[in-house]
């Protein structure tokens, strides 16, 4: 059975305390016995000195000479006078001392000869009675006295047990105190051990124990509080890690982390998607992913990077362009990030192209205005000619205003579509407003507008934007379709919550059908029948497409079989 810390501590202190107590008792008993023995020896020595002095001052020849002396000595005392050569001269228990033989070899006599006196406890060889002997050597003879080693003498030599009982009582009290202290420390250790066991077993909700108010309890509380802080930090770190992983997984970038040895540590789904587009090799579960050809610039950078920790390059594959960024961490691990910049690059190129087109579109009217005004300022022209040049300059400023207006309209549609509020829009009313506003231009080109739209057709949208759709389509006919044409506006169909509107004309159309896919591009102009001289900003159809897309619809263009151009677009029906 495994002993608890409390029992181990108690038993350890018990053993130490018992050994210490036993040592004290043994030492005290030994010292007490020695003290009592010395006291008895001093008593026997005084008897020996008395006997020797008595013998020397009285010429004693036999037993009768000792009667007076024996009368004052204890009755149980045995008295023996031994000559220097070991012969017994007198023994009060034996009338014939010569029969006792040589006593020079007795232990007490040998000790007396060597040291002046001697002490021994043994059984007498003469009468088989145990005695405690004391012999003293006086130079010419020995005087030996002895007391029977009986219960009385033994009791005298036995140490006092009061001290023993006192020490034993202290032992019991000490053991109780040790048990109490051991139990206190044991409780602290047990609670700390239970706490450690609960932690090591993988428990997530470990209850904080209550420790006793002692030093070990304070240590236990500090450890428990430290663990609680670590647990809280670990939970916080785990939550942050989950957030980071969710962010990485939902990121619009393909992210992959490599260990310092080049093996894959983690990647998100978009990384696999991009890699499958870029490389033909098996990606998922490939431990040698970093060795693929697409990562050759990365390998070269890692080999020669020095103190550099960041690197980026571009990868063009399968008609798509990716930006590859590399971050190197302190532990040697590597983060690679793929960004699909195909759309951004196309947008960038489109902006460059648009900037060039804008500059080109602005150059013509600005050059014309400058030329007209310089002519008016530098030359003395007839009044009618001067007014003609000023009128032409004015017309060019109108073209510039339209260009700026259309560019502003496109920017607002693309960047702040939420600013356009939507509601009920009656298409019949919109068509009538366009006809009324453009009546002079329509009449000048002998163009008629025929609306076949249902009177109750109502769409959901922004009134001014939908007006711009019909206005720009009508302007397109005025500028490019020719004279004497008809515009037919009708509802082609209505399904899935959208009304499909047909806007057709009987004019020139587009000579080459290949241009139809591009006529909605900004500043795109066909070569046939739609020259810059015909007017317009070159942004009208692009505005139309953006407005239709903003309302969730689509628009297409085609040449009509009977001549002319037809636009088919959809707008959401108001419910």
Outline:
The protein is built from 14 helices and 17 strands. It has 575 residues and is α+β, with helices and mostly antiparallel strands. Strand 16 and strand 17 form a beta hairpin.
Classified in CATH, the superfamily of the largest domain is PAS domain
Low-confidence stretches: 527-534
CATH topology description of the largest domain: Beta-Lactamase
What proportion of the residues is helical, as a percent range? 40-55%
Give the strand tally: 17
Number of helices: 14
Q: How much of the sequence is in beta strands?
A: 15-25%
How many domains make up the coordinates? Answer: 5
Major beta sheet, specifics?
5 strands, antiparallel
* Shape label: rod-shaped
Q: By helix and strand content, what is the structural category?
A: alpha+beta
CATH architectural label of the largest domain:
2-Layer Sandwich
Distance between the termini: 84 Å
Radius of gyration, taken over Cα atoms and rounded to an integer in Å: 64 Å
Mean pLDDT comes to 80
By CATH reckoning, the class of the largest domain would read Alpha Beta
Strand arrangement across the biggest beta sheet: 2-1-5-4-3
């Amino acid at each position: 059975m495994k002993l608890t810390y409390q029992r181990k501590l108690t038993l350890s202190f018990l053993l130490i305390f018992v050994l210490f107590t036993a040592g004290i008792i043994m030492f005290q008993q030994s010292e007490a016995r020695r003290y009592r023995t010395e006291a008895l020896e001093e008593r026997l020595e005084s008897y020996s000195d008395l006997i020797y002095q008595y013998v020397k001052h009285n010429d004693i020849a036999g037993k009768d000479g000792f009667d007076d002396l024996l009368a004052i000595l204890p009755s149980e005392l045995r008295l023996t006078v031994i000559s220097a050569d070991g012969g017994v001269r007198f023994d009060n228990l034996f009338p014939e001392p010569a029969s006792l033989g040589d006593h020079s070899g007795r232990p007490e006599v040998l000790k007396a000869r060597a040291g002046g006196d001697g002490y021994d406890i043994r059984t007498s060889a003469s009468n088989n009675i145990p005695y405690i002997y004391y012999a003293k050597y006086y130079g010419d003879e020995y005087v030996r006295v002895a007391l029977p080693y009986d219960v009385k003498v033994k009791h005298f030599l036995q140490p006092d047990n009061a001290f023993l009982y006192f020490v034993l009582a202290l032992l019991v009290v000490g053991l109780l105190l040790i048990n109490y202290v051991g139990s206190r420390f044991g409780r602290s250790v047990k609670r700390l051990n239970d706490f450690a066991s609960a932690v090591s077993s993988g428990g997530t909700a470990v209850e904080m124990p209550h420790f006793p108010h002692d030093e070990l309890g304070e240590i236990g509380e500090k450890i428990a509080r430290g663990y609680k802080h670590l647990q809280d930090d670990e939970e916080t770190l785990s939550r942050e890690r989950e957030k980071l992983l969710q962010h990485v997984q939902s990121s619009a970038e393909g992210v992959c982390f490599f260990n310092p040895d080049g093996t894959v540590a983690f990647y998100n789904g978009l990384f696999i998607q991009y890699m499958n587009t870029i490389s033909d090799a098996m990606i998922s579960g490939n431990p040698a992913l970093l060795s693929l050809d697409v990562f050759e610039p990365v390998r070269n950078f890692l080999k020669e990077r020095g103190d550099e920790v960041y690197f980026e390059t571009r990868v063009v594959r399968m008609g798509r362009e990716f930006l590859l960024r590399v971050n190197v961490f302190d532990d040697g691990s590597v983060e690679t990030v793929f960004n699909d910049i195909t759309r951004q690059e196309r947008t960038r190129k489109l902006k460059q192209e648009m900037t060039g087109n804008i500059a080109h579109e602005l150059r013509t009217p600005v050059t014309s205005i400058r030329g007209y005004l310089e002519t008016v300022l530098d030359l003395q022209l007839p009044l009618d000619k001067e007014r003609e040049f000023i009128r032409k300059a004015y017309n060019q400023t109108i073209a510039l205003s339209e260009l700026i207006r259309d560019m502003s309209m496109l920017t607002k549609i693309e960047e702040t579509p939420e600013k356009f509020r939507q509601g009920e829009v009656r298409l019949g009313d919109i068509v009538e407003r366009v006809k009324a506003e453009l009546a002079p231009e329509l009449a000048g080109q002998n163009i008629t507008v025929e609306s076949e739209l249902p009177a109750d057709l109502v769409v959901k949208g922004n009134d001014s934007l939908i007006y711009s759709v019909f206005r720009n389509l009508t302007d397109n006919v005025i500028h490019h379709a020719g004279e004497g044409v008809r515009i037919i506006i009708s509802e082609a169909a209505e399904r899935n919550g959208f009304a499909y509107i047909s806007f057709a004309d009987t004019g020139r159309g587009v000579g080459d059908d290949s241009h139809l896919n591009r006529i909605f591009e900004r500043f795109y102009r066909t070569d046939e029948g739609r020259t810059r001289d015909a007017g317009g900003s070159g942004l009208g159809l692009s505005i139309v497409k953006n407005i239709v897309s903003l309302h969730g619809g689509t628009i297409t263009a085609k040449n009509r079989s009977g001549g002319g151009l037809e636009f088919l677009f959809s707008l959401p029906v108001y419910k």
